[in-house]
Design brief:
- The complex is a heterodimer.
- Chain A is 37% helix and 31% strand.
- By secondary structure, chain A is α/β, with parallel strands linked by helices.
- Chain A has one domain.
- In chain A, a hairpin with a 7-residue loop joins β1 and β2.
- In chain A, α1 (35-51) runs parallel beside α2.
- The mean pLDDT of chain A is 92.
- The two termini of chain B are 15 Å apart.
- Chain B has one domain (2-146): Heat Shock Protein 90.
- Chain B has helices at residues 12-28, 33-53, 90-99, 104-109, 113-121; strands at residues 2-6, 67-72, 78-87, 127-132, 138-146.
- Chain B is globular, with a radius of gyration of 15 Å.
- Chain B is α+β, with helices and mostly antiparallel strands.
- Helix content of chain B is 43%, strand content 24%.
- The chains are: A alpha/beta, B alpha+beta.
- The A-B interface holds A 10-11, 31, 33-34, 66, 68-70, 72-73, 76, 99-105, 107-108, 111-112, 115 and B 12-13, 15-16, 19, 32-34, 37-38, 40-41, 44-45, 48, 103-105, 108, 113-114, 116-117, 120-121.
């Protein structure tokens, strides 16, 4: 599948879905006007592709600086779906990068991580 | 001291403008990184909360009934305070929502993620008042988040 790259907007994150390389990035701030309209197309594309059962290692990087509640829900949905698909591909890693000093994003990452039972999500501070 | 006040339209478009203004105000404050993050996050949630849930009276030309303000107190704390109208039966529902903010998973299930975020960002328990208004079927609700 062709690589997808969305540049960051005023209220939307940069998104890179590099299927061939198995590298997936969500970077920046997310409080879109219409969160569903922003996240759903990429989520569908990603999940359709994951369901085909790619066998190479996959790395998901969530590097948010700010997330509103609607975005948190959709990101949690994506992570939960990645976890379900992890049954077929054991080489999936997920990392949650939070800005140093952003306690709320750090704790959100930790709470999401505790809900995951099939994959380990690394919580990493970034400067 | 009032550092920021807004009582214009609470729409997604105005959030774009006001969030930029609010961010520049935060940058000028003598506050720490964590406090700045919490203030910005709380501002976004409170603004969106009003945009999505505030009710308007049926009477025309009543002016703005919704506002959001940033206040600085003598203990170097910053509070975000909102006022808006809501349905009169919302009081008990809101109280119940606040009392059941246990964890992220439950907040997601209960569709209370916004309140959960505010609770996490606030240095003390979220406080609110719920008072009668001059409009039938509507009450005034005010919410305060201390960062």
């Amino acid at each position: 599948m062709e690589k997808m790259h969305l540049a960051a907007g005023d209220r939307t994150p940069e998104v890179i879905l590099d299927f061939e390389a198995g590298q997936f990035y969500f970077i920046g701030e997310s409080y879109p006007q219409n969160p569903m309209a922003f996240f759903d197309p990429m989520r569908s594309q990603l999940l359709d592709w994951l369901q085909q059962g790619p066998s190479h290692p996959l790395d998901f990087h969530f590097k948010f600086d700010h997330l509103d509640s609607a975005s948190i829900k959709l990101v949690m949905d994506i992570i939960e779906e990645i976890e379900e698909l992890n049954h077929h591909n054991k080489s999936i890693t997920v990392s949650w990068h939070y800005p140093n000093g952003n306690r709320t994003l750090k704790e959100l990452g930790e709470e999401i991580a505790t809900e995951l039972s099939h994959i380990r999500m690394a919580i990493i501070p970034k400067n | 001291m009032n550092l920021y006040f807004y009582d214009g339209p609470f729409s997604s478009e105005s959030l774009s403008i006001e969030s930029t203004k609010f961010r520049s105000i935060i940058h000028q404050l003598q506050c720490g990184t964590e406090q700045a993050y919490d203030l910005f996050s709380s501002f976004i949630e409170l603004f969106q909360n009003i945009a999505q849930h505030a009710r308007k009276p049926q009477a025309q030309d009543t002016g703005s009934n919704s506002s959001i303000a940033l206040v600085h107190d003598h203990q170097n704390r910053y509070s975000l305070v909102t006022h808006n109208l809501t349905s009169s039966d919302e009081g008990s529902i809101f109280k119940e929502k606040l009392s059941s903010l246990d964890n992220l998973k439950k907040a997601k299930q209960d569709s209370t993620l916004g309140l959960y975020l505010l609770m996490k960002s606030s240095k003390k328990a979220l406080s609110y008042t719920f008072e009668e208004s001059e409009y039938p079927g509507l009450h005034k609700i005010s919410l305060e988040v201390c960062c």
